[in-house]
From TrEMBL:
Pfam families: HTH_38. It comes from Rhizobium grahamii. Residues 165-329 form the Integrase catalytic domain. The keyword Phosphoprotein does not apply. Keywords: DNA recombination. The keyword NADP does not apply. GO terms for cellular component: cytosol. PROSITE patterns: INTEGRASE. This is IS30 family transposase. GO terms for molecular function: nucleic acid binding; transposase activity. The lineage of its organism: Bacteria, Pseudomonadati, Pseudomonadota, Alphaproteobacteria, Hyphomicrobiales. NCBIfam families: transpos_IS30.
Length: 333
């Protein structure tokens, strides 16, 4: 009954105020509130109002008890009581360690006698007192405001079951047919802006296409893919396989624009589009995450794709992707 502990709420304290005023036994208070009796003892002892000048008003009052508890929790935050630990955590955040990594390392090293969980670090990052430090920018998604836990909306509506990779025909998976592509988005450091690069790789020939985008909005991204692939014959652009990023939620535009079907990986399974993932590793040699895309034009990306597509590949019998791609185009013409 008492295994899952939650902080006492203002509503609980209002009920407790009436029970204290009625001089109900502590065991009965605990039963009615669904709490352990020690919790009730501690609550009354710590949050009862005392004043030497107004001793007649001493007692347990719900709103006063709530304010006393809130003020105490604010004063006794671990990272304010232990400045050395606070400094160490800031240093690790600046090194782009996640709160979970920091908390886990502190525990495994045993260097600090104070135990800190990842939730304590998140609260520190987004607290009013320390928000001006801007520590949120070192988190993986650099959110200015913290997203409530479990608030992420499911994406099944955007990516229906009929387009799951499990429904994709086997001839796409075994690379026996030409004209089936995989797509992904290369993201760069947030302070450098919202620009990104769409990576598209044809599964059979390994031919690569790179498209620069000013943002992650799905419709402009789809429009650029349509514009880039429209000149190709229909057999060379039959389908695309993406992950479930919101930037690909406008996939129906591909069906309407160029008649290409879209397939989507299972959640958290990027390995299911391994061709483009491997291509991304090569591309990152030339476009690391620290690249400022404001200095990179679409013409620069075109030169990079030519360089990548002109490299012989073992999986192609040491043909280049450009040679394999042109051979398939000529065979299908």
């Amino acid at each position: 009954m008492y295994r899952c502990y939650t902080q006492i709420t203002l509503a609980d304290r209002r009920r407790l105020h009436h029970l204290v005023a009625a001089k109900v036994p502590v065991n009965e208070m605990a039963r009615q509130l669904g709490r352990h009796r020690s919790t009730i003892y501690r609550e009354i002892k710590r949050n009862t109002f005392h004043d030497r000048e107004l001793s007649d008003w001493d007692g347990y009052y719900s709103t006063v008890a709530h304010d006393i508890s809130r003020d105490r929790r604010s004063r006794l935050r671990k990272l304010r009581r232990h400045p050395a630990l606070r400094k160490q955590i800031i240093k690790q955040l600046e090194a782009r360690w996640s709160p979970e990594q920091i908390a886990g390392r502190l525990l495994s090293d045993g260097l600090s006698r104070i135990r800190v969980c990842k939730e304590t670090i998140y609260r520190f990052i987004y607290s009013k007192e320390d928000y001006e430090l801007g520590l949120y920018q070192y988190l993986s998604e650099a959110r200015r405001k913290r997203r409530p836990m479990r608030s992420r909306k499911p994406r099944d509506g955007a990516f229906p079951a009929s387009h799951r990779i499990s429904q994709r025909p086997d001839f796409i998976g075994d690379r026996s047919m030409f004209g089936h592509w995989e797509g992904d988005l290369l993201i760069f450091e947030r302070p450098l802006g919202h620009a990104n690069v769409t990576t598209l790789v044809e599964r059979k020939s390994r031919y690569t296409v790179l498209i620069k985008n000013p943002s992650r909005h799905t419709r402009p991204i789809m429009d650029k893919i349509i514009s880039a692939f429209s000149p190709l014959p229909a057999f060379a652009r039959q389908s695309f396989t993406f992950d479930r990023g919101t930037e690909f939620a406008g996939f129906r535009a591909l069906e309407d624009g160029i008649g290409a079907r879209s397939w989507f990986c299972d959640p958290s399974a990027p390995w299911q589009k391994g061709t483009v993932e491997n291509a991304n590793k090569r591309i990152r040699r030339y476009l690391p995450g620290t690249t400022d895309l404001a200095t990179v034009s679409q013409r620069d990306l075109l030169q990079l794709t030519r360089h990548l597509n002109d490299q012989p590949r073992k999986c192609l019998g040491y043909m280049t992707p450009a040679e394999a791609f042109m051979a398939h185009l000529q065979d299908g013409a």
